[in-house]
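Structure first, sequence second, as always.
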């Protein structure tokens, strides 16, 4: 009998015990055995996923947000076991870019009736080992926004927590000089944010980061966004929403496989919504790193 490990994050902003029961009931009706494991400490999902790999499960499903999902990925890469997503976070950007359903019943059916889709990941090199991301990582104001939108606020406000944290951050926004190396090209730019994206849709806010940014193209897309003060921050946000660039306004874009970011001012770094350290930042794409279950 096929087996699935369902990893949940009990403290995620949108976690609901009823959803876990629904997913388990759907999978059991489909004839699958289900093991449920809950994270109990930060970065626990990778350990649980590795245990599922060792146990030989057929699919590892994650009911949580993007951060917990990509923590789990660290324990799965190279295993050949696919990942399934039951959206349970605030943004659910990976699920949105894969056009996965938010409905728990339909999401559960992707485990048993879906097809595999291979996607890229980004890998951040850190002193304590690599950290992967599926959506984006960034240095600067986006990490500050994550700090300003803690779990308890996301539980109350949902995606609005990110909006309020963004406008709070814009009040004191500055753009120190960054050196960004994209493959063999060096860019010296003033930036409030250096974002490195693996996919292009910010589905929770209904806009795209730009054309041609996809999960399976073998590249990462870099956006260096310059803004000093609230007014320039709003202009930069408009340029991002409208897809404008490159270098003539507030946004400089580049695309590559290996990116490093340094800054004389230490900048916080986030990956898929989790703050994971500070600059300097070294990132590399891992083409076709993992398979995800999607609807037929």
């Amino acid at each position: 009998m096929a087996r699935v490990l369902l990893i949940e994050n009990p403290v995620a902003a949108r976690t609901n015990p009823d959803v876990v029961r629904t997913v388990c009931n759907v999978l059991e009706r489909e004839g699958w055995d289900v093991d449920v494991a809950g994270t109990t400490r930060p970065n626990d999902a990778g350990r649980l996923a590795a245990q599922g790999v060792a146990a030989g499960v057929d699919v590892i499903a994650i009911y949580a947000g993007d951060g917990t999902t990509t923590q789990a990925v660290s324990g799965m890469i190279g295993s050949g076991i696919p990942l399934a997503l039951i959206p349970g976070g605030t943004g659910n950007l990976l699920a949105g870019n894969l056009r996965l359903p938010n409905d728990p019943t339909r999401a559960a059916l992707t485990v048993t009736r879906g097809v595999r889709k291979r996607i890229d990941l980004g890998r951040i090199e850190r002193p304590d080992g690599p950290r992967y991301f599926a959506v984006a990582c960034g240095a600067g104001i986006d990490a500050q926004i994550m700090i300003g939108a803690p779990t308890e606020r996301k539980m109350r406000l949902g995606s609005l927590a990110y909006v309020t944290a963004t406008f709070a951050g814009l009040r004191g926004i500055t753009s120190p000089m960054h050196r960004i190396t994209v493959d063999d090209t060096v860019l010296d730019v003033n930036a409030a944010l250096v974002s490195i994206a693996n996919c292009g849709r910010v589905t929770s806010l209904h806009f795209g980061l730009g054309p041609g940014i996809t999960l399976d193209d073998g590249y990462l897309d870099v956006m260096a966004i310059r803004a000093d003060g609230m007014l320039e921050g709003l202009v930069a946000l408009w340029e991002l929403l409208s897809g404008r660039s490159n270098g003539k306004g507030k946004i400089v874009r580049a695309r590559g496989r290996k990116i490093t970011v340094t800054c004389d001012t230490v900048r916080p770094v986030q990956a898929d919504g989790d703050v994971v350290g500070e600059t300097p930042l070294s990132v590399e794409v891992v083409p076709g790193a993992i398979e995800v279950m999607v609807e037929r």
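Margin note: The radius of gyration is 19 Å.
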